[in-house]
Predict the structure.
Amino acid sequence: MVRRLTEGEFKATLTHNMHDVTTSATDVLDIWPYVESVPVADLEGHSIFEHFVEVVYRSDDGCFDHVLVMTRTKNVYLAVVIDLANDAFYGHRLLDLNREYGLS
């Protein structure tokens, strides 16, 4: 089951320090069936770029991984949040850094 996270739910999975574990993460979930199940409306007009993960960040407390899946728009990602304690998908959120931080 896919679940779109609210801004508050997404931010609650962040810690002050998020660590890049892209090359060191083990026992990872296959995110692609989840990504392919995300409703088109949740992508807000963006589309996924192939099957490409830009980076994986782990929360300081070791509870969540944020898997940033590239879209075809620069600085826009589908953030898939993994609940590490339950080895399950927690949800997803479109992360539009252009909109949030005024990037171009």
Notes: Residues 7-101 form one domain.
